[in-house]
Amino acid sequence: MTQRPFEIMRWESVSPPTLESLSRMMAREGLRAEPSELAPQTHTPEMKFERTAVRVLVSGKLQFSFPGYGVIELGPGDILEINPGVLHDIIVSSAQPAIVLEALRD
Fold first, then answer.
1. What averages of pLDDT result for each successive group of 10 residues across the chain (106 residues)?
2. Sequence-distant (≥ 6) Cβ neighbours of residue 7 within 8 angstroms
3. Element (H, E) at 28
4. Residues 75 and 99: beta-carbon distance below 8 Å
5. How many whole angstroms separate alpha carbon 104 and alpha carbon 52?
6. Which pLDDT score is estimated for 62?
7. For the chain, first and last CA: distance in Å?
8. What is the 3-class SS of 31-49, one letter each residue?
9. By C-alpha distance, which of 57, 49, 56, 34 is closest to 83?
């Protein structure tokens, strides 16, 4: 059986997440998160990283595509940790921009 190329943690609170609360959460994990904004309907080139990539969606909707595994959709507050060396791309699937906190785990 193949190991999943990622771990996902879904936002379970009824309250929507805020940039500040998600930034604090990542800082408590020892992560230096940088916010970025992706325009609606954006499709990134394929990418991979040498370290674990941590992505936290603040607002909007994103689809992460993993060749050979499938597609995962994230909603606000969801956290995705992508294993090192895993090829993936991102599609903004919402009509509004997606705000994402991004960090690399040592």
1. 84 95 96 96 96 97 94 97 97 95 94
2. 80, 81
3. helix 19-28
4. no
5. 6
6. 97
7. 27
8. CCCEEEEECCCCECCCECC
9. 49
